[in-house]
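Q: Please design a sequence for this.
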């Protein structure tokens, strides 16, 4: 029996050792190899097909700032807005013109986006709801005319009726469908005289948001140019040689850096013009807590850094959560004053030309005087927030948050959240603007995000989480069973040994 217990002790030690060896020596490289194989963008692989056409639609949620006191604003009063939304669109993405490099390290493509209104998710809101918004196209044209013209703009007053359909304010009554995609009509034919010249100049500017029709009339739609179109030619790393570079954008439209922002003295590429990170549809694998994530967004012509926040989970899948309020960190104190392009005359800016905290001038990116902020001016300077009533900033709803599965870099849940605004102010000689107070005026904010559906959650569980669970079960099961076996056999051995000793002791006295 003692021999059996010794064998049990040895077996327990061996089993425990095997469990530790498997858990810390054997399994990790096997898991790493499988993860590498699963994330690399190799032709005809499962990952490639999921990358080529996203297996589920993204949620494109739109919130409008409905203007509730137009007359007061026109007479110099403080603007008051009320959020209306979300109006939810399903955004489908698909890669086209895909080409692999000869060495399989990069892949070139364009990506189209299609938007479909999700009536069920948006209910009770409908695309034809009536809303009142800042007339972005008229506001932009008037301010540009003031900037570019050396003549008195008084002559334009009479032409506004012909160009913009007899406006009685700087705001427009519209619908979500019309404002976003179908278009708000202006320069409706026939237009003659100076009005015709103005309309031709607008058409010749070829703004992405303005469409010209066969009869020469124009329509403004904020996102129609994004529907069923692509945002440039991308070259990204496939991760074939280095999995940590999987999805990294190497070139956009033939360039490895941007030209939208200021460069360093001497002409070297500034931090603002660097293209860093992925397009947020995936991230490199093997995440570490002290590593940041980078996203490149063509919509705002810049890269955005997200910092590690905490561990989390999404539907029982462990995650790393990242967040950012990048718009609140612009200026000399952050080493990125190259974003201070100062291209909007008479804007509310600091003495050095930079916008105040929480705002980014997108003029050089969008060819329009548009300012980006966090939704509801979250974290923005009082120089902007104090001028508007109706904001309800909330960190949970309005900051950018992304949950990422740390082994594979798969985004589990998250959203890119951004608000588009324009400076509304008095324009010399334009009657409609004579009483306006200069204000950074909100128009719309977007939450473009994803939450993995059942199919993708099951895929992550099947391909990774369940595998990790069973490997952990084998590892720690072996350790626990080995320890229990070793301890129990040791106790048994000691008990038996003690018993044998007591039986083998010769008695000193014998009673007859």
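A: Design:
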């Amino acid at each position: 029996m003692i021999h059996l217990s010794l064998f049990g002790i040895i077996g327990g030690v061996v089993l425990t050792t095997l469990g530790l060896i498997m858990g810390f020596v054997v399994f990790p490289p096997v898991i790493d190899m499988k993860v590498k194989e699963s994330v690399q963008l190799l032709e005809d692989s499962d990952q490639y097909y999921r990358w080529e056409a996203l297996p589920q639609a993204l949620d494109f949620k739109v919130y409008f700032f409905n203007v509730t006191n137009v007359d007061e604003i026109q007479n110099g009063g403080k603007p008051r807005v009320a959020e209306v939304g979300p109006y939810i669109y399903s955004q489908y993405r698909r890669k086209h013109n895909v080409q692999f490099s000869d060495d399989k390290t990069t892949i070139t493509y364009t990506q189209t986006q299609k938007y479909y209104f999700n009536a069920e998710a948006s209910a009770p809101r409908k695309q034809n709801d009536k809303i009142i918004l800042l007339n972005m196209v008229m506001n932009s044209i008037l301010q540009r005319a003031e900037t570019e013209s050396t003549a008195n703009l008084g002559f334009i007053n009479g032409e506004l009726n012909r160009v913009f359909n007899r406006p009685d304010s700087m705001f427009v009554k519209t619908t979500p469908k019309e404002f976003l995609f179908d278009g708000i009509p202006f320069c409706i034919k026939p237009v003659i005289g100076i009005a015709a010249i103005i309309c031709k100049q607008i058409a010749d500017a070829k703004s992405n948001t303005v469409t010209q029709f066969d009869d020469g009339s124009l329509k403004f739609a904020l996102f129609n140019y994004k529907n069923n179109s692509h945002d440039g030619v991308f070259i990204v790393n496939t991760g074939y040689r280095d999995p940590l570079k999987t999805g990294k954008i190497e070139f956009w439209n033939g360039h490895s850096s941007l030209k939208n922002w200021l460069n360093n003295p001497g002409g070297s590429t500034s931090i603002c013009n660097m293209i860093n990170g992925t397009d947020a549809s995936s991230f490199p694998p093997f995440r570490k807590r002290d590593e940041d994530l980078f996203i490149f967004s063509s919509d705002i012509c810049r890269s955005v850094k997200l910092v590690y926040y905490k561990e989390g989970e999404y539907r029982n899948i462990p995650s790393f959560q990242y967040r950012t309020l990048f718009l609140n960190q612009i200026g000399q104190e952050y080493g990125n004053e190259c974003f201070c392009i100062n291209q909007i005359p008479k804007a509310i800016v600091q003495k050095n030309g930079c916008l105040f905290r929480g705002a980014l001038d997108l003029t050089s990116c969008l060819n329009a005087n548009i300012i980006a902020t966090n939704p509801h001016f979250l974290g923005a300077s009082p120089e902007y927030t104090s001028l508007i009533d109706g904001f309800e900033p909330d960190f949970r709803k309005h900051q950018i948050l992304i949950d990422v599965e740390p082994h594979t870099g798969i985004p589990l849940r998250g959203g890119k959240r951004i608000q588009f605004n324009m400076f509304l102010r008095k324009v010399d000689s334009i009657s409609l603007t004579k009483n306006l107070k200069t204000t950074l005026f909100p128009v719309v904010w977007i939450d473009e995000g994803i939450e993995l559906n059942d199919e993708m959650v099951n895929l992550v569980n099947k391909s990774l989480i369940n595998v990790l669970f069973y490997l952990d079960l084998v590892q720690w099961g072996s350790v626990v069973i080995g320890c229990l076996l070793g301890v129990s056999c040791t106790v048994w051995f000691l008990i038996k040994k003690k018993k044998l000793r007591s039986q083998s002791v010769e008695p000193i006295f014998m009673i007859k």
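Q: Thanks. Anything notable?
A: The first strand starts at residue 58 and ends at 67. Residues 417 and 447 are 5 Å apart (CA to CA).
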